[in-house]
């Protein structure tokens, strides 16, 4: 199992735009309305923090490899190498470069009409790291940090994420 996780602030930001574009999901008049719903676990698919807590039980399972979105964006070659190693796939340098190029956000967005039809425009918006800084107020950022700390403090996944998500970005 390859577990891809992302900074909760960027998850919230991405989901805000996703819900406001997809008509089958509730939409929100303002970012503040969405943030309140996100923090009070009143969104479709539940709480991201509950999701992380559930996966924490499996972080040491030998058939689980965790990788962060931020890690893949920062060093896609190393990320793909780590994923291939975990899956037991040997790649030549040329194959590695092909996978890196074709799995880049830009490439997937460019090909999204072919791969996902009209839904591609909804799935592939920006693909950046730290886009949350364009929406979060300082108070919201602190609330999210506290919620993360309350939910994930003392867990292995919390320790890994704290380093990956907040120290490298």
From TrEMBL:
It is an enzyme of class 2 (transferase). Residues 1-155 form the Sulfotransferase domain. This is Sulfotransferase. One of its GO terms (molecular function) is sulfotransferase activity. SUPFAM superfamilies: P-loop containing nucleoside triphosphate hydrolases. InterPro entries: P-loop_NTPase, Sulfotransferase_dom. It comes from Baryphthengus martii. Keywords: Transferase. Belongs to the sulfotransferase 1 family. Gene3D superfamilies: P-loop containing nucleotide triphosphate hydrolases. The keyword Protease does not apply. The keyword Transferase applies. It comes from the Eukaryota. Its EC number is 2.8.2.-.
């Amino acid at each position: 199992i390859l577990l891809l996780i992302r900074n909760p602030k960027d998850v919230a930001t991405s989901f805000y735009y996703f819900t406001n574009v997809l008509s089958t999901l509730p939409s929100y008049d303002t970012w503040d309305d969405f943030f309140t719903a996100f923090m009070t676990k009143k969104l479709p698919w539940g709480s991201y923090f509950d999701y992380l807590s559930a996966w924490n039980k499996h972080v040491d399972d030998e058939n689980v490899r965790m990788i962060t979105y931020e890690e893949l964006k920062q060093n896609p070659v190393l990320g793909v190498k780590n994923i291939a190693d975990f899956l037991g796939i040997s790649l030549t340098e040329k194959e590695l470069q092909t996978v890196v190029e074709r799995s880049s956000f830009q490439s997937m967005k460019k090909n999204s009409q072919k791969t996902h039809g009209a839904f591609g425009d909804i799935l592939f918006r920006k693909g950046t790291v730290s886009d949350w800084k364009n929406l979060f107020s300082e108070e919201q950022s602190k609330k999210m940090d506290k919620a993360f700390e309350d939910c994930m403090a003392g867990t292995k996944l919390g320790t890994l994420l704290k380093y990956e998500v907040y120290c490298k970005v």
